[in-house]
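Give me structure tokens for this 262-residue protein.
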Amino acid sequence: MKNVVKRGRPSKVEAPQMKLNVKTVKMDDLSFNDKLFTPMRTNTKVDQFFSSDKGVMPGTNVVITGDPGVGKTTVLLDVLADLNNQGKKCLFISGEMNSIDMVGYVRRFPKFGALEILFMGDYSDVNPDVVLRTALKEGYDCVLIDSLAEISDNYVDHFGGSVKSNTNRILQLLDEHNQANNDADLNTTFLVIQQVTKGGGFVGSNKIKHMTTAMGHLKFDEMGRYFHFSKNRRGGNGNKLYFNLDTHNKVSWLHDEPLNMA
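Here you go.
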């Protein structure tokens, strides 16, 4: 007897039923701590670019990309140090440098010397998730991470798996501290330096785009170096903000121009 091969569309398979309680909310029924809407200010021109409230907003995540050599680390350390000088509790997490590397930065920018710094390279033989969770548990107003890709690689080296899955693990940790799950009950803001490919794509998980409150870029053009946001859920100035790194102990924020102008 010949085997009969049945052709046509396969029979429909019913998905297993599962009970799921889905709740909707009305924003009018929710309440939030007023501190979430009090901006953290550097008292420099850059404040108006971070939000329409003219400052870095608590509990947010700001991802910064940039051209090679444009000064991503320097600019974001300058913002962090200015917030630190205004009385905010700040932390710099470096996945790329060590304390010797920081000497040159501190000589040019002495205010960086007052920042708390976690050098991930000092704990290369330790579970990086434990290192980050232990450091962040204390609670900070603002944390600068340089860079997310480098720290994700540390996770891959320890846990295995893909960069994407390990980046998602880190993003979950950031979200916990956005929600003030730390000893100080602070809604932590994260300034995250992220690498991109030559084509401008993200290195790592696309979830970064979705969890990001604001997406900033540091670039060169014929007029010099500038900073701008391509996305910002908190408003803010959408122009290019030009700057230079020639002055001692501060980034010089110069003038802003509309993005469509040379």
